[in-house]
User: Fold these one by one.
Assistant:
Number 1:
Amino acid sequence: MRTKILPIALALVALGCSSPGPDTDPVHAPLGVATAIEAPVASAASSTEKVARRDVALVVHASGRSWVVLDAAPDPTWEAGSPALVGDDVEGTVAVARTVDASKVSAVAKESVGRRVRLLGRHGVACEATIDGLAILGRVAPDGDVYARWRGEARDEADRPLPAPPKSDIANEAWDLAEGARTLVGSLGSMSGRCDEATFAVAQLGQVVIHPREASDETRRAALLAFRALPEHQSHARDYAEEADDTLSGVPWDSRDEAMPVVETLAQGDQELVWVSAGAGGGCGDFSAQLSALFRKTPRGLEVVRVLDGWALELSAVVVHAERGERPATDAYELMFPEARTRATEGEDVERLNVAAFGCAC
């Protein structure tokens, strides 16, 4: 059974550092930052439970600001103060935050404040910053009517303009709507670099981060053959064939209209991974498909490592959870995306940061 993409929130700490390289970033000694934490997560059995220690975390961006995600299921008792809007909305998504009671948050969260961190993106180290505070952040994309009311663009039954509510009222309403999409975050200050380009951070000593690069023509041809031979690709091809007109006859679904599959390589030592990702169609009743796959080069050709059906996000990097010089097993690879991540092991859930979304995009 192939992986199902699950929109679940992610709770981890982004504390660490690395030095940039053309394709591979070895991670050196942490800048006085804890290399792993225990993060509480929601549980049916209890309000919180301890999960395995992790050393890689995501970075979240909202309203032109960046934060380190410390806990994806913060205890409501940690909240303090009233909700407040965070800057301006961005493309219909509103961010709202509350301060925290520092005496109640986890020890790891407290110890994070004041520490210098390095954040990474698709092209290596994006920035350095200091975690200068804690907050609980919620994000919501309200439906059109609510959004228009918040912006002062709504009208009453007599078609008269309605004034926008006070920002405090909007913040309270947005906070309620963001239930299930709130995270404990560390705010960033004293930044150098472009933190808005960061997607994740690492902390474990000796880890390696591999950044993608464009594949050669030969690799691209071989990868597309392997990609299009996948059962998932062929399933989408059958759906596509039912809708494609004569002008598209013979054109693979992953290349219809303006679509173009992405093929990239990630090399570490004598091992080379190949990432292929494609998305086509607009949905809303019309044909739509997204598919990604990770392959490993072997003497026998490309070997399937992981298939992600319904997925076409840009790959930021692969973090290798193995000792330096050790040949990584499949489960040693962790795929990092903007606000999402998963292990390379087939069947592992994809963990995603969440935005509470309302309304229909069609």
Note: Residues 213-315 form one domain.
Number 2:
Amino acid sequence: MLFEYSMRGLKGMTLHGIFFFFNFFLYFFYCSIVEDLIRRFKITNLQLILVAFCFGINIGSMLFINVVWWGSLQSVLTFYFANRFCKRDWSEKPMGPLGWILSVGYIVWLAVFMLFKSKIPLKGTAHGYFMSVIIFLVALIYLIYSINKNKREPWDFKQSFLLDCLSFFSVCVFMFLGTFVAVRQVLVSGSLGSPLAIKLSAAWTLVVFMGMLLYYLKNKKQISI
């Protein structure tokens, strides 16, 4: 939600009250699904990025939005940051069938609703859409295969100074952009947002992505999620 705030500001988040609640429950149910997958299958960072890739598939900017925004920032780093303050209790029971039905059902319903509600016409060729569907299916099949093949044990949370800095400064940057930059919004992809704030948020996200790559190259181990 803070990431959304950085691009839209308070006005863009609350002008249409229903948009705020749609977004809140979207992130709530997505995080519920991810948390349950972590508890059940002890998924790796790569598998979490694949979950985010399948969830946030965007035909226009597939690699950047699905891998950098959803995968790295809003999934891996977000769950690291959450566990930094409140470590996971592995003994808690996972989400039940009703929780999965509500979570997946809401996400699918919202996607269909926004598709028909949006006044922005779909762009792209039939070949592009077809390839997007194929990539999505391949990612989903590999995700299911890798989860069932590699069984992991629960892990102890490992703190990282670099990841702490990336998390802390992400909060500061997004708060600053949402409060002082995204004060004047225009219609961007069917919703209110600040073009300058969006560009600056994207730039910072790349900084975070490069920092996480540096962590992997230096430590050669998983980020604790």
Note: The chain is about 75% helix and 5% strand.
Number 3:
Amino acid sequence: MHETIRGRVQTLGLFEKLFWAAGFGLNALLVIVLFWKGKWKVVPWFTGWISFATVSTIAMYFGHLYGGRHVYSVLYWSSAFIDVGLQLAVVGEISGFVFKREMGWVGSAKKKLLCSAVVVVLIAALMALNITPAADSARDALFSRASLFVTLLVTGLFTAVMAISQQVGVSWKSIVIREGLGFLALNLVSFVTDTLHAYWRMAEHFGDLERLRVTVYIATLIYWVVVFWLPEKHAGVVDAPTEAMLRDFRSKLKYESPRE
């Protein structure tokens, strides 16, 4: 989104300007597609995240042009914190689609998710605290650690959702697959670039790594625009005898279930 500058006021070259314009245009187009196709009702947190990215990109662009270093830095890090919260909400939204049913959570999914969340937080915190950031100041070092922690947290939680869904044997709905595949791609490339920045001190390759991140982001936006525009695949229509048999089966399950 805005990773080509990373909180610092720099001169934008033609390449960065083209990436910025493409990212903003595709973000705006994706928001239009989500509302036009009514998908925002199905994935409200995802829609909110993309909408926020669109608005914050405009704010930071003008902050970069007219606000100076301090204004841009405030806008950048404020939007970064909000972005993290929205990404975690997207993970929760996907988890709800995968594991929640009318009668509650599927099997032991909730317990597994909570345990996985604790493990992911501990691993992310340990890795973030044990790096030696390629930073010019204590503040930049703190931001570098925080960036790696957040990337590990979001990537780890989403990976846990995928793993647990396989363990408990639940299938993913088509729209969740569309949302999740792109989300996973973004966070994996963020994991790679943030890890390279943090552990191998790739300061001299900062621009190249950020271009890689933005390239994957733009490709993901194109993917989302296409797949959310396409009609949702629905299961076949159940005929009347089958529907009656299913109702009878549910009634028997309810009747035969043990009472406390």
Note: The two ends are 53 Å apart (CA to CA).
